[in-house]
Amino acid sequence: MSTPRHHTLLSAAFAFLLCALPSTAKPADAPLRIGAWNLEHLGSRNEPKRTDADLDALAAKIRDLNVSVLAVSEVNGWRTLRDLARRIGPEWDGVLGRSGYLGGKPPKQIGIGFLWDTRRVELLEASDWRALPRRRDGLPVFHRIPVTACFRAVGGGPDFRLVAVHLKAGFEPADTQKRTIELSEIKKRIDALLATPGEDTDIAVLGDFNHGPVSPEHAILTKENFATYLASDPPEPSIIHFDDQIDHIVPLNGFSEIRKTTFDVVDDKGKLDKTAWRNRYSDHYPVVVELDLGPDDDPEATFSSGESPLRPLSQFRD
C-alpha cells in the first residue's frame, strides 16, 4: 500500500530523471554550422600515406567540428568520400563533382564535393557548374569545376545554397589571372541566379580559394557590397605552409542567417604542431561558421536546378 512518503520519494525520483534528460533547445537557440576543408589528396596521399587509424582520426575531427555541412576538396573518387562519410557516422551522406582528374592509371582525382549530416539538413539539389568556361583569354581555367548544393534544415529553419570551390593554386602572375577569371565567372553565374524570379538569395561561396586578402582577385566578390570574406580576429592562417588564410567562407551580404562573428579557423590552438596536424589530418585547417536555426526568412523562395545533377553517394552501388 502506498504511503504519502512513497509518493514523495517517487515524485522526487521522477523530477530527478526529468532533469537528467538532455534538454531540447529551441530552434532559434540551436546553431547550424557549415564549414570547408581541403583534405589534401584524400585517398591518394603517399607522403605520408594515410592509415585506417588516420582516416578514423579525420572522421572523428569532422564529428568534433559539429558541422552539419562540410565542403571538401582534393578527394580521390566517390568511393573515397563514401568511405569517409561512413567513418563519420551512418547518418552522413555526400556528393562529389566530376572534375579535377589527374594523370595515371587509374587516373587520380582531386575532386570537390560536400558531406552532410542527414539528421540536421536535407539535400534539395546538387550539381556541377559544368557550363562554366574551361578556357578564357587563352588560359585554361576551372580544372576543378565548382559544385553547388542546396540544403534545408530538418524540422524547420533556413534553406541555402553553397558553392564549393578549389581555385587555381600558385604564386605566378598567370595563376592570379586564372583565379581572377574563375571568380569573375562564378560571380556572373551567381548574378544570373539572383536575376531569376523567385530565386533564393541565401548563397555562400566556400572552399580553397588559394589567395589571401591582399591578392587583387579578392576584390571581385567584395566590390559593391556583394559578399564578405569572413575572417577571425586576429586573422589566422588556414594552411600550414604560410601565414595567409586562403580557405574562405564568403556569404552574399543578403544571407542574413550567417552569424559572421562565429567564423573560426579550427587549428587546435597549439595542441598539435604543424607536422603532427598534417600527418593526422591535412595540410589545411578547416574553416567554420554558424547559422541561426530560426524560421527561414524567405520561405517562398526556390532554388534553380543545375545543368549537371549529382546523386548522393548513398545511392551509388559498387
List the helices and strands and how they pair.
Elements: H1 4-20, E1 32-42, H2 52-65, E2 69-75, H3 78-88, E3 92-96, E4 111-117, E5 121-128, E6 135-136, E7 139-140, E8 147-153, E9 159-166, H4 173-194, E10 203-208, H5 219-222, E11 247-251, E12 258-265, H6 274-280, E13 287-291, E14 308-309
Count of strand segments: 14
Number of domains: 1
- Kindly identify the CATH topology: Deoxyribonuclease I, Chain A
Question: Pairing-aware structural class of the strands and helices?
Answer: alpha+beta
Strand content: 25-35%
Structure, explained:
The protein has one domain (26-315): Endonuclease/exonuclease/phosphatase (Deoxyribonuclease I, Chain A, 4-Layer Sandwich), CATH 3.60.10. It has 318 residues and is α+β, with helices and mostly antiparallel strands. A six-stranded mixed β-sheet has the order 3-4-2-1-13-12, with helices on one face. It has a six-stranded mixed β-sheet with strand order 11-10-9-8-5-14, with no helix packed on it. A two-stranded antiparallel sheet has the order 6-7. It has six helices and 14 strands. Strand 9 (159-166), helix 4 (173-194) and strand 10 form a beta-alpha-beta unit.
